[in-house]
Amino acid sequence: MVAENDSLPISLVLHTVFCPRRTWLEINGENTDTYQMQAGHSAHRKVDDPKTSRSEQIRSLDVRSSTMGIHGRIDVIENKNDSVRIVEYKATPVKLKPIVTEANKVQLALQQICLEESGFEVDQAAVRFVDHNKNVIVEIDDATKQHAISIVRDTREIISASEAPLPLEDDKRCSRCSHIDVCLPDERRGEPIARRINASDPDGQVLHLTEQGSRASTRAGRLIVSHQGEKSGEVPLERVHGVVVHGNIDLSGALIRELLWRNQVIVWCSSTGRVYGWSQPTDGPNGPLALISV
Ligand code: SF4
């Protein structure tokens, strides 16, 4: 729990950009370990060890601004003569365009404010889309900084409120929100549930398996779901960027291996969405050193 006058984590401020209710849920202990969170961790894996820093590239640097009352961590700072460049690492499915979001801009602006307060001159900010192997330069002007500061102010108001802001109404953000399982936006509004989890969402990259007693396997480059011996759905593996298993659903060993090989995360949840755990693909196709030989 963060007190009203405490320093705010920049990561918490970014929840406000997405949805004020999510900030309130997060600060009140309803944090979640979901596919989105795990994908975010994977994107940072290469830069989250400060010991791997070099003189021209500082990794995983903790920063703070005491005047703003915020703190956070910057993935990479590149030294350029008298100035520095900030680089944030993000995971975005290859099939989606590498687009800089409002949250990315707010994050970079707040990081820049922290660095400038520590005496750095920030020359440039960029987002590195790890799945696309691409850097996108982000312009942080005064208007962007002022907007970021206003979001910090909003966040303080949200966390000092005794009640959560109302859920969004029929908003597509909810279907990709990491907190939907604890927020329950449709139920909270007391309306019939119009949105449902689909076995395959054509616009989404994450496959949710929900049919209890079913089995998912792979054949000829496709993920196949069957129930009581009958095929109930299939999707090309190319379109699957992660799998969330809700409840009593079996995955074949071949499918698990294939998803690990493709560096895709599998998350196992209860049928009500509580996360039990997730798979951890290795960085490269050959994996770490084998520990057991037979
Ligand atoms: S599920 Fe929707 S309303 Fe609830 S926190 Fe997420 S985005 Fe906000």
Brief summary of the model shown:
The protein has helices at 10-18, 20-27, 35-44, 102-117, 142-160, 180-183, 185-188, 253-261; strands spanning 8-9, 57-65, 70-80, 83-90, 122-129, 134-138, 206-209, 215-219, 222-227, 230-236, 242-246, 250-251, 265-269, 275-278. The protein has 294 residues and is α/β, with parallel strands linked by helices. The chain binds iron/sulfur cluster.
Structural class: alpha/beta
Count up the domains.
Answer: 2
What is the rounded distance between the termini?
A: 50 Å
SSE run: EHHHEEEHEEHHHEEEEEEHEE
**Strand content bin:** 25-35%
Sheet of most strands: 6 strands, mixed
Quaternary structure annotation: single chain
Shape: globular
**Distinct compounds present:** iron/sulfur cluster
Count of distinct strands: 14
The CATH architecture designation of the largest domain is: Alpha-Beta Complex
The CATH C-level name of the largest domain is: Alpha Beta
Helix content: 25-40%
Overall average pLDDT: 83
Query: What integer value in Å does the Rg equal?
Result: 21 Å
Q: CATH topology of the largest domain, what is it called?
A: Lambda Exonuclease, Chain A
The low-confidence parts are: 195-201, 284-294
Helix count, per DSSP?
A: 8
